[in-house]
User: Fold this.
Amino acid sequence: MRKMSTTINHLATLSQTLKSSAPGAGSGRLQRLDAFGPNPGALNGWFHYPAGLAPGAPLVVVLHGCTQTAAGYDDGSGWSELADRHGFAVLFPEQTRANNPNLCFNWFTPEDNRRGAGEPASIHQMIETMIQRHRCDPARVHITGLSAGGAMTSIMLATYPDVFAAGAIIAGLAYGNAHGVPQALERMRGQGGAKGGELARLIPAPPPAHDGWPAVSIWHGTADSTVALSNAADILDQWRGIHRLSERPDVIDRIDGHPHRAWLDRDGRPVIEEFIIDGMGHGTPLDAAAGVGGGKPGPHMLDVGISSTNRLAEMWGLATPAAPAATTESAAREITANVPALRPALQPVHATRQPAAPDAPASPGSPGYVGEVIEKALRAAGLMR
Assistant:
């Protein structure tokens, strides 16, 4: 288990590693999305709408990671190029330095992790604007995000289940399992928090118009030193509980050489998919040799021989899927032995939680003093306001 000092030092140096490599927001293929509503989260909005796209096209929402911009993440992931080929729109909400110095979505703050408030409300307003202004299909809205963007993807799927058909959480964290900076650091290290069936209970009751939970795809690298691999198991447990799925997957195989498991609905469609990428660190999986949608390697954009962009587009019905490779019984046993252990899901109990009142400032030697030290470190790393 990594020491707290190691995690803090890693976070503090992350910015210096990436600042010089992130392209400016105005570069690339994206257009600014203006006048999309009150914007309580004070986010920027960018989008790509292919020329000649007919009304009723699907919409993919893409959330970048820390220190990245919308254009930089698009350039690395290849989403807008794939949209041109297959005919769908792409929306890129973007963090601002006024909100977070290192452009991380604030997934761990109470005002930014619930429906109708803060950054989630701004993202929802952007989606509604794309549906109304560009006549995107409201029944085919999908969302994906990396790291802090992956954690915000968890928030959007959990609190706006009536908006999304499906989503993909890449190197992210489960919804509602951290309240404040010390807990955020612990969860990133894989420590503490709810486990198993308790995770499903963290997701609030759906709105009245809700007619089904979104499908979820989970991606994580086995060598991720920023967000511990155990977070993938937590996300899996949370959504297995929500979908009331058994412990045993319906599909165990390898895709492009990497372990893959899936839980299917009665019609044989994936409700949950999990990709554990062998040897991958913290980032978005790419396959640079795949061409359009394969991605372009860079900081936290990792060429590991599988394109999450292409694979998600196939899963979501936006592109023609490749034929799956056969998996032997021995290979299936090997995969099962090397993915995170599953825990049976319990019946989810939906309850709305009220955010805790802020604590009084701690003094040296008091129980809260260490928490404030951690908070200052996270502020210095740019992971909170």
User: Anything to note?
Assistant: The longest helix spans residues 118-134.
